[in-house]
């Protein structure tokens, strides 16, 4: 397993080009299963999760061809299997996103139950409930969700008890090919939902309300391939901006969307950062030690849970005491004990991390436990007074394209140590 070796102390300076959004690219690649003709997708980030998705689509029988590093054509005209195996689902929970498309187009899908995950239990009951309302028969057999329906799914009125991003995406994709109209209430409003809806509409779907809490989907009988560009990754952008703020640097993120980051940018300004934005760029300058900021995660447009760990790192070196409260996942503080090992003054009370900023962190050998926890440890390493080793970085490779190359280009001293 690979590790990162980081020697901190340099303020990050320069420009970084942001990749396409993992959490938009994943459902959009899965949406290719709905199409009878090939779809070309650009601005696809090259990450382990994308490789897993491509493997999954290929196993189902789709033909996948990379035209360029970030451009892929998926031809799902011939699908010969409708089963997503445990081996793939356990490495990437988003594999559940094949359920809606396979069921809608072929009337049959088998997907391994994902099981628990480092950040929480993450059930999928809302996906199943919504599909059942559309007429599917669903049972669990030997650890697999087995879903069937005769003919097309039927449009339904669905109220989601909890706001779920992939739940909304799965139901939206299923409803796109259903007979009749589906209304999803209490839908997720994340920008990635809007991106998926835009892609589906370009393929011929009739979806309105994306970005609000009510989606209306008038089902159509077929969808066709298109050429679609994935939105920029707002979480990668936020991660580089926090790294710039923590190291008191100056970083311009290119190829991004400031409009998708309101809550994060406002917290960075509260922490003392100067932020200038253009149509597709954000520049952050930090001229002093950050001020600690209280953060509370909640569904979009509130502060994203995927930026929580990075802000804990900001708070542990900031001036003052702050609370960081996690309301989405019940166990998303695995970075806290690792940060304590680097000298952070942080304690957990229920779903809140209480931090009092320290003047400097010490380097240590720390272990990444999930994707964003890994990012928080890398950022901590960038300001530590002695070298840091972050182990198990396969987590970070799931969601960041060449993070060490991008950080090196900004002046960071970070190298990958190849493991066995
Ligand atoms: C691939 C992808 O896009 N992943 C994102 C997606 O994950 P994901 O879509 O898995 O997260 P959800 O939005 O579904 O989870 C939100 C909450 O709803 C609960 N829940 C969800 C589904 C369900 O059927 N029942 C249920 O109770 C979850 O346990 C969690 O407490 O949104 C999360 C919340 O913004 C992000 O952290 C992830 O990065
Ligand atoms: C939690 C995340 O991803 P996933 O839902 O794929 O685990 C994330 O992107 O931070």
TrEMBL record:
NCBIfam families per UniProt: murA, PRK09369.1
Residues that coordinate or bind phosphoenolpyruvate: 22-23
Molecular function as annotated in GO: UDP-N-acetylglucosamine 1-carboxyvinyltransferase activity
Protein name: UDP-N-acetylglucosamine 1-carboxyvinyltransferase
Pfam family, one: EPSP_synthase
Principal location class: cytoplasm
PANTHER family: UDP-N-ACETYLGLUCOSAMINE 1-CARBOXYVINYLTRANSFERASE
Stored SUPFAM superfamilies: EPT/RTPC-like
Enzyme Commission code(s) on record: 2.5.1.7
Protein function: Cell wall formation. Adds enolpyruvyl to UDP-N-acetylglucosamine.
Source organism superkingdom: Bacteria
Subcellular compartments: Cytoplasm
Pathway(s) annotated for this protein in UniProt: Cell wall biogenesis; peptidoglycan biosynthesis
2-(S-cysteinyl)pyruvic acid O-phosphothioketal modifications at: 117
UniProt similarity note: Belongs to the EPSP synthase family. MurA subfamily.
Residues given in the record as UDP-N-acetyl-alpha-D-glucosamine binding sites: 93, 122-126, 306, 328
Active-site residue numbers: 117 (proton donor)
Swiss-Prot/TrEMBL keywords: Cell cycle, Cell division, Cell shape, Cell wall biogenesis/degradation, Cytoplasm, Peptidoglycan synthesis, Pyruvate, Transferase
Reactions mediated catalytically: phosphoenolpyruvate + UDP-N-acetyl-alpha-D-glucosamine = UDP-N-acetyl-3-O-(1-carboxyvinyl)-alpha-D-glucosamine + phosphate
Occurrences of domain Enolpyruvate transferase (ranges): 7-407
């Amino acid at each position: 397993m690979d590790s990162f070796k980081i020697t901190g102390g340099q303020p990050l300076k320069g420009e970084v080009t942001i990749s396409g959004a993992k959490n938009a690219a994943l459902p959009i690649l899965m949406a290719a299963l709905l199409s009878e003709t090939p779809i070309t997708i650009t601005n696809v980030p090259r990450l382990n999760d994308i490789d897993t998705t491509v493997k999954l689509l290929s196993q189902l029988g789709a033909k996948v061809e990379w035209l360029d590093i970030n451009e892929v054509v998926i031809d799902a005209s011939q699908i010969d299997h409708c089963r997503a195996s445990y081996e793939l689902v356990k490495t990437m929970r988003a594999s559940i996103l094949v359920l809606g498309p396979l069921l809608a187009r072929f009337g049959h899908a088998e997907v391994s139950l994902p099981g628990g995950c480092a950040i929480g239990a993450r059930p999928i009951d809302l996906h199943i409930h919504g599909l059942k309302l559309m007429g599917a028969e669903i049972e669990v057999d030997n650890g697999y969700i087995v879903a069937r329906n005769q003919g097309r799914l039927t449009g339904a009125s669905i109220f989601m008890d909890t706001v779920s991003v992939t739940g909304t995406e799965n139901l939206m994709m299923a409803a796109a090919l259903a007979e009749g109209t589906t209304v999803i209430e209490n839908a997720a409003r994340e920008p990635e939902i809007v991106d998926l809806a835009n892609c589906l509409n370009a393929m011929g779907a009739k979806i309105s309300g994306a970005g609000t809490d009510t989606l209306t989907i008038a089902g159509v009988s077929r969808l066709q391939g298109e050429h679609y560009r994935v939105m920029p990754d707002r979480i990668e952008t936020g991660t580089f901006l926090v790294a710039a703020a923590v190291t008191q640097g100056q970083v311009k993120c290119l190829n991004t969307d400031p409009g998708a980051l309101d809550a994060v940018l406002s917290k960075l300004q509260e922490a003392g950062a100067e932020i200038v934005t253009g149509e597709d760029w954000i520049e952050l300058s930090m001229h002093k030690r950050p001020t600690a900021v209280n953060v509370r995660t909640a569904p979009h447009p509130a502060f994203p849970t995927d930026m929580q760990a990075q802000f804990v790192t900001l708070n542990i070196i900031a001036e003052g005491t702050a609370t960081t409260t996690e309301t989405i996942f019940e166990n998303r503080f695995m970075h806290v004990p690792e940060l304590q090992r680097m000298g952070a003054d942080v304690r957990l009370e229920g779903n809140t991390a209480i931090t009092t900023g320290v003047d400097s962190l010490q380097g240590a050998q720390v272990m990444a436990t999930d994707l964003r926890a890994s990012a928080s440890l890398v950022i901590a390493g960038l300001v530590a007074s002695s070298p840091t080793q972050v182990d198990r970085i396969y987590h970070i490779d799931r969601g960041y394209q060449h993070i060490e190359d991008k950080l090196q280009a900004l002046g960071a001293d970070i190298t990958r140590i190849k493991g066995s």
